[in-house]
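job 3f2a | input accepted
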Amino acid sequence: MPETPKRPRRAPAPDARKLDAERSRRLLLEAAKDEFASKGFAGARVQDIADRAGLNKQLINYYFGGKEGLYVELGRQWLAHEATFNESSAPLDDLVVRYLDEAFADPRGTRLLIWRALTDEAWSDGPEDREDLSDLRRRQAAGELAEEFEPEAVMLMCYALVAAPVAMRHAVGRIYGLDPDSQEFRERYADQLRRVIRRMAGPGPGPAAPPGPAESDPATEPARHAPGRARG
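job 3f2a | predicted structure (232 res):
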């Protein structure tokens, strides 16, 4: 019988190629986040990242230029996401709890920071890497943070308060007697964190004096000073 001629393979449409590339990048980034969070930058292997993503490891070089490129891209993604909830208009306690909620929702980012701190991985000590404390200083000038506190210390304490439930999950069980993933623990801890941050506030502006009459009026004088009446 005559052999049936094979149809030529059609090249994927540009839109299909774009969607496939976006899917591959997304899978690799998710897999890298899992591996880095579990093993740190040095311990994560390119082959393990590719296997977890179900893709060829050559795509890591193709899309990101290697393992370090993946790590850097994860940092860029975090900064873009952070910009969606880090609002300077939010009260400081609310802002810190937003970071806590992010750590609860996806603890991998916090674990990445812990690995980085423990192993000094991928650190750059240039001046451009100094933490921006301008927002804390602005809040301090507005009285939201007492003058006795150094913004540097407050920033460091906020890091620690947010990371503690992720870094010391076993301690949560011993101290609270609760599962660190339970809603009860998360709500109680968030409430306490708010209270701690609010205690750092400086003295607010004093109450405004009530408007007094233009002239002393004997008829109203006893009423204004009657026992039990709140004074302005």
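job 3f2a | DSSP finds eleven helices and no strands in the chain.
job 3f2a | closed
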